[in-house]
Amino acid sequence: MISDTPTSNQKNKNRKKGEFIFQLFIAGNTPISIKAISSIKAIFEKYYADNYTLDVFDIYEYPGLATTEEVLAVPYLIRKKPLPEIRMIGDFSDREKVIDELLILTK
Amino acid sequence: MSKPLPKMENKLLKSPSGIKGFDDITFGGLPLNRPTLIVGSIGSGKTFLSMEYIINGIELYDEPGVFMTFEEKTNELLENASSLGFNIKKLIGENKLYLEHLEIGHNVSKEAGTYKIDGLFVRLEQAIEKVKAKRVVLDSLDTLFASLDRNILRTEFKRLFSWLKDKKVTAIVTAELGDVFLTRMGLEELIADCVIELSNRVTNQISTRRLRVLKYRGSAHALNEYPFTIDENRLTVFPLISQGLQQPSSSNRISTGIPQLNEMLENKGFYVGSSILVSGTAGTGKSSLLAAFAHNACMNDQTCLFCAFEEAPNQIIRNMRSIGLDLQPHLQSNKIQFYFARPTLQNLELHFMAIKEIIGVLQPKVMVLDPITNLMTEGPNSDVRSMLTRFIDYLKTQQITVMFSAAITIGSIARSPSDEGISSMVDTWILVEDIATEGERNRGIYVMKSRGMNHSNEMREFIISSNGITLLPVTSGKGGMQIGSKRIGAEKEMIQPNSKRKQQAEISSDSRPNL
């Protein structure tokens, strides 16, 4: 079937090491994409600080990934680690919901 | 983003479906390079119709296709499709078909904010590129995103449809029938080009599939609801439409099989290619009249199709032998062929299609249907009537003389005027009647109408004996026409040596105990 995988993390300048690994799929450089990236980063920075990795993929650049990761609606977030995988659709403007879904303990 | 408007074409280009009947009612197929919406309830045949559109595109028109299913898993769809006779695996192997099951996983959290459905675009794009598709099916779109916010979805779907247009593919989008809107998400407002509705209604425990073109922008289309069937391998829409105008009208005549009945019809009988209704209550001899007609046609070396909905062929042969009509030799010489089926076995369309298929092979000159009223039990009368009208039209184009029986009497028309519709669509209407007088029942026969001929207006008594059917001459006596034993009495009163009458009187008295 159709496949192409990003060879390296050339596009992902935000890569940090950590136990939380996320993939974010966006479609083009649109306001929604930009908003999604900034929203999710704000949440991660607050709760995971240096302990996370976020790879952002534009599905128009990596169309094969859309198929292998079963992306239909974007922005699409996948928590790869720790398992179980968590998948979310949206621009993460609903902060409460995101925190809730990611099982982040806010104390 | 704005593009120059495409040059206006005078005629809307169509993408033929290759589905029997479907291209007739849409006058050529689906609108080319535009999306078409197919709506219908569960099990109405949406997937099948779409699949056949794709398969035919590949096999008949060399147009590769993409089939995106959101309901069935890919392997389930493969299985289902191959059980219906589609060799999908082969087409996938040849890279002419791309099939994929898309779903939003059940564990995916829906929407934290707004979203776009570009993922679908990207995946569609790859699929279209892969096989160089000209035809695309999205089955069924509304289930895919059922859990997402509808207001956003509508905007996104709108974007999807214009994207599909830009891609220059002819697309079918299927959707379930909704409560408020036609579809659950009001897709019909977004796809403005062509909307087709499928339904599967059950009347009297028999389901009938129907298809209707609700809308076809820029094109004429047939307006009615047309029955369609899905058999082992193909979908067929049954559009016996607009055949009525080209039907030939023969002035040749064909014998009724009963000399005295011919007498009542200008001494010649029926017109070839006309339709004849024999109606009457139970036990008046309708089937016998039909058998006599069929028998006579066979005797004159014409092939006959005998459609029996009441009695099994063997029983008909036995019963008709008892009145001197032996159909067995005709069966052996293949001059007569029986189509026997219980009306409740399947829906009317399937009956008519099966009959049509036999007609194609047998090429009969004559056809009898006994009785059509049995078919009526199985669907509202208006349905049967329109089916029957179209069927009769079809027979006319084939120049097949058809005779059918029905339990319709003048009394029943008074009770249910819709019955008259049946008598109005036939060319010749013969009414047989039970006349009860003074402790006995006798049979009377009238020609109620016979288009295009100067038919007799008399009521004739007729008898069924081991020598066949005989119409008796009119015997007048005191107080008008005499029938039954009164007639025999009146005849005896007349001068004895009229041997012919005496003989007939004997026949009639012979037959008495059989009544």
What distance lies between the first and last C-alpha atoms of chain B, to the nearest angstrom?
A: 86 Å
Q: State the secondary-structure class of chain A.
A: alpha+beta
- Total strands of chain A: the figure is 4
Multimeric state: heterodimer
Total of domains of chain B: 2
* General form of chain B: elongated
- Radius of gyration computed on alpha carbons of chain A: 13 Å
* Mean of pLDDT of chain A: 77
CATH topology of chain A, what is it called? Glutaredoxin
Tally of separate helices of chain B: 19
CATH topology of the largest domain in chain B: the name is Rossmann fold
Order of helices and strands of chain A: EHEHEEH
CATH architecture of chain A: 3-Layer(aba) Sandwich
Number of E-state strands of chain B: 25
State the helix count of chain A. Answer: 3
Mean pLDDT of chain B: 79
Q: How would you describe this structure to a colleague?
A:
The complex is a heterodimer of chains A (107) and B (515). Helices cover 28% and strands 22% of the residues of chain A. Chain A is globular. A four-stranded mixed β-sheet of chain A has the order 2-1-3-4. Chain A is built from three helices and four strands. The longest helix of chain A is centred in the middle third of the chain and has 17 residues. The N terminus of chain A is likely disordered. Chain A is α+β, with helices and mostly antiparallel strands and 107 residues long. Chain B has 515 residues and is an alpha/beta fold. Chain B folds into two domains: 224 residues, Rossmann fold, CATH 3.40.50.300; 227 residues, 3-Layer(aba) Sandwich (Rossmann fold). In chain B, the strands form five sheets. Chain B has a nine-stranded mixed β-sheet with strand order 5-4-7-8-3-9-10-11-12, with helices on both faces. Chain B has a nine-stranded mixed β-sheet with strand order 17-16-18-19-15-20-21-22-23, sandwiched between helices. In chain B, strands 1-2 form a two-stranded antiparallel sheet. Chain B is elongated. At the A-B interface, helix 1, helix 2, strand 4 and helix 3 of A face strand 6 and helix 5 of B. Strand 4 of chain A pairs parallel with strand 6 of chain B.
